[in-house]
């Protein structure tokens, strides 16, 4: 036991860390890019390479169709096309009888192509509730999707999806809101964001058409009622007065005619 000094263990660790293999360079295989995201039915290029000077064999194992674009001793360049589902591709080389490979996961996405926002109802009285619904058909992966409901530039609600199915699905976000007086001043909209950064991609965003909400004051409704009542009463009085005028006018005429008849009868009387 005493043969181990305090220095031996750290020195051994250091040697392990700094000089692995401690001789010729280890045989390695690389694939570039290291993470792949592709739109459904899309294609991408990969470069499969090795540090082995004279590899005996090398290539790519894939399910989707592959095309060799560049064939060199130390690297091979491929086009993989019509990728329709998540897959794993393998790049391999054989050097001095030993085989090494590198695997890369390919994630397929369906971008949010269509974002629809609906307000139900479109006209609402202050204090009453209305529903905001956002729909995105056939989007994937749902795990990377966030639907944000916006009022003007203000974020009202974020909807995320925990379901891990890789198949494209319809994504829906709904929110029930109480109408405020100022809700009619800004439009409502919905933003769909597919964040593929953890899979080696970027962020894809699409926003719905803006939707306007018409908000009414309950007071306004009372005022409308009063105005309509007053108008009705005025109209009634007007019609009545016209009618009365007409009736009284008729009576006056008849009186006049009656007088004439008396006069005529008097005129028709033979003069004595
Ligand atoms: C593939 O990778 C190798 C090694 O990194 C590089 O020398 C070569 O130029 C690359 N080929 C293409 C087409 O990018
Ligand atoms: C690629 O090149 C090697 C020689 O460097 C050759 O043996 C092999 O057949 C070529 N492969 C294709 C698919 O052209
Ligand atoms: C692409 O793949 C799908 C199924 O994976 C197949 O139905 C379709 O015919 C393919 N298209 C092409 C152009 O190869
Ligand atoms: C590929 O995906 C599997 C699971 O889907 C995971 O376990 C593995 O670590 C991934 N490989 C790489 C290189 O990201
Ligand atoms: C929604 O998520 C964004 C970031 O994605 C964040 O800035 C915002 O505060 C969130 N809004 C709500 C209402 O949770
Ligand atoms: C919103 O309200 C409707 C009926 O008013 C109800 O059916 C629905 O479940 C509510 N939705 C949410 C997310 O609260
Ligand atoms: C709301 O959207 C409509 C189009 O749908 C637009 O004409 C109007 O200017 C927008 N209003 C505001 C306040 O942004």
Could you explain the architecture of this structure?
- With 272 residues, the chain is an alpha+beta fold.
- Among the domains are: 85 residues, Immunoglobulin-like; 101 residues, Immunoglobulins (Immunoglobulin-like).
- The chain is built from two helices and 17 strands.
- A hairpin with a 2-residue loop joins strand 7 and strand 8.
- It starts with 7 loop residues before the first helix and ends with a helix.
- The structure holds 2-acetamido-2-deoxy-beta-D-glucopyranose (7 copies).
- The site of one 2-acetamido-2-deoxy-beta-D-glucopyranose has 3 residues, from strand 14.
Task: Offer a few descriptive terms.
272 residues, Immunoglobulin-like, alpha+beta, four-stranded antiparallel β-sheet, disordered N terminus, binds 2-acetamido-2-deoxy-beta-D-glucopyranose, four-stranded mixed β-sheet
